[in-house]
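Appendix B. Raw example, untouched.
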Amino acid sequence: MRVLSLLLLLNGIAVLSVSAASGLILWRVLAKNENGADWHLVHASGTARGILLIALAPVTSLLVLPVSLATLAVCLLILFVWCSLTAMLVRASSGSKGFDHRGSLSNRIGFGLYAIGVVALFPGLAILFLGFAMAL
């Protein structure tokens, strides 16, 4: 489980780094008196997702699961974080509004990334819930 903790920590730090960089872009956008809502979303939710991964790292040792299931849960959560963060980056950098599988290329990419992330999130959370509940 130590490897899973390190995997969560490293990905959390990487996500926070991307979030910090997006904060610099947000600052530049706001300094030009432009609308920075999309970059604010990347910065704020990227920070939250990075902290989520870091917060989960020390408690993976409490999971009562086979290593394969614990690994699957951690990988699914990491996949969710990177897919959703990348989708937000695509939207912010393209200036395109909305996510739609029939829209512009950036809309379709964002939609696909969010869809993958959502599909990964719920099973990952369910497995984690089971693993922590079995520890009671």
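End of appendix B.
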